[in-house]
Amino acid sequence: MELFYSSDIISDTVRLDREESGHCVKVLRHRVGDAVEVIDGEGGLMHCTLVDADPREAVLRVDSREDDWGALPYHLTLGVCPTKNLDRFEWAVEKATEFGADAIVPLIGDRSERRVFKPERARRIALSAAKQSLKARIPTIPDARPVRDFLAETRGLQLIACCFDGSDWQRVSMRAALESAPGATEVAVLIGPEGDFSPEEVAAAREAGFIPVHLGSSRLRTETAAVAAASFVYYHFL
Amino acid sequence: MELFYSSDIISDTVRLDREESGHCVKVLRHRVGDAVEVIDGEGGLMHCTLVDADPREAVLRVDSREDDWGALPYHLTLGVCPTKNLDRFEWAVEKATEFGADAIVPLIGDRSERRVFKPERARRIALSAAKQSLKARIPTIPDARPVRDFLAETRGLQLIACCFDGSDWQRVSMRAALESAPGATEVAVLIGPEGDFSPEEVAAAREAGFIPVHLGSSRLRTETAAVAAASFVYYHFL
User: Fold this and answer.
1) Is the pTM of this model over 0.90?
2) Which of A95, A134, A217 sits opposite B219 (nearest CB)?
3) Tell me: the pLDDT tens digits for A82-100?
4) Which of A3, A118, B142, B229 is the most core-located residue (most Cβ within 10 A)?
5) For chain B, where are the E strands, in sequence order?
């Protein structure tokens, strides 16, 4: 099954952009009358018929539409500090999308080596990974913001992965945290930079209702920790 | 914490090869008398003292030794068909190592596009990932073999991930399979090539005692499925 993406949907007419049109008409050689599936990136899958096989702007007619197509039974927001090596972060975006993350928020932590992040490439990777893994919803990747600004933006079960315990608190495993809130379908997980979160950031997160968690005894790279968090939530709802 | 690796350990004398010696003496600037941690790749961690800071062949004295250091409470064998794009397979080797795989066996399936695989690069990646994630045991990566030859090599809970059900059998989720065998600490998971396993391969695997499993509704790439399987087992024992 091949999915196309369009943001140009007016009533029952869908237009594909140049890249998607070329892939549809030149690469996959679709012809007028062919059935083609298109996602709107917000959960909608449209069963369409190709009516104009223009390789620069293909036009399709919507025959039927399904909402929340391919949706998983939870809403996962990952707040992740982008790694110094951007390839590793972009790899995490691809994999977290495959594991059903709904939002991947680039964060700048007190100890982040990368303090500037441009999300355009990551957004293209998320779009491609969503189509490949059969999802009609593409994870949102907003502009980067400081960890502290992000703390007020999340709801539901809020977890912060860090590598240390406090004098008056101890981390629980992410599994224990997920299983302690069986009804929670809205989950947010914070993943820090290579140098971890600062004690002040974890204190602010606990203040905001986040539960400090560990991801086990293996020392995971930042991008592996982000994918681990996404795969753990995916598995928890499997 | 920084780990070094040596295969040249005679009684209480450890020699580092040229690469590890350079990293120890030139990059990290260790001097005679410094405490240095060395793994033997088979579960042993040696607390050593640097006695000869030769940047081509550093020599260390073993002060004490810990067996099964950093070991996880399970033994995971991943049988994975290498992807056409080797970078993706090597990425899976790095991440599966971080998630504690003990053996990563390259398999050639009926539908494998890649029918030849040289394990040298993957072995170097596994070594580096084991040191980075604080493990004294480096996953073994044997030479590639056909899927059918591998079926007789595994023990314990044996799972095969595939994308179809049979006429007289249905896949269960990998979570259901793991939870159906709470006592099993020896787990083997088979991950097929881009084109999935053939019905004949799955039949042979079922014959050999493998349980067909699915990894959820998301269509995961081969390398993502391999990392998913490793992360699911890691989470199951978290």
Assistant:
1) yes
2) A134
3) 999 999 999 999 999 999 9
4) B229
5) 3-5, 8-10, 13-15, 35-39, 45-52, 59-66, 75-80, 103-108, 145-146, 157-161, 172-173, 186-191, 211-214
